[in-house]
From TrEMBL:
Domain HTH deoR-type: 22-60
Highest taxon of the lineage: Bacteria
Protein name (database record): HTH deoR-type domain-containing protein
Keywords associated with the record: DNA-binding, Transcription, Transcription regulation
Lineage: Bacteria, Bacillati, Chloroflexota, Ktedonobacteria, Ktedonobacterales
InterPro entries: DeoR_HTH, Tscrpt_reg_HTH_DeoR_CS, WH-like_DNA-bd_sf, WH_DNA-bd_sf
Native organism: Dictyobacter alpinus
Gene3D superfamilies: Winged helix-like DNA-binding domain superfamily/Winged helix DNA-binding domain
MF annotations from Gene Ontology: DNA binding; DNA-binding transcription factor activity
Length: 60
């Protein structure tokens, strides 16, 4: 699937996790849905290391 772990650079320093911007994350979610037809919010939250609220906003 091509997801790589990296460090996300922020003004306050670095935050470990996935260096994906919202549009990239949405594209990856769409690709996952094309293959699997369904996926849960908690599963996406764990995959992308973001909150479930963030995933729900991505899906809105």
């Amino acid at each position: 699937m091509g997801i790589k772990r990296d460090e996300l650079y922020t003004p306050g320093g670095t935050v470990p996790g996935l260096a994906l911007f919202i549009n990239e994350r949405r594209q990856q979610i769409a690709q996952i849905l094309e293959v699997q037809q369904q996926v849960t919010v908690p599963a996406l939250s764990r995959l992308f290391s973001v909150s479930e609220v963030t995933i729900r906003k991505d899906l809105a």
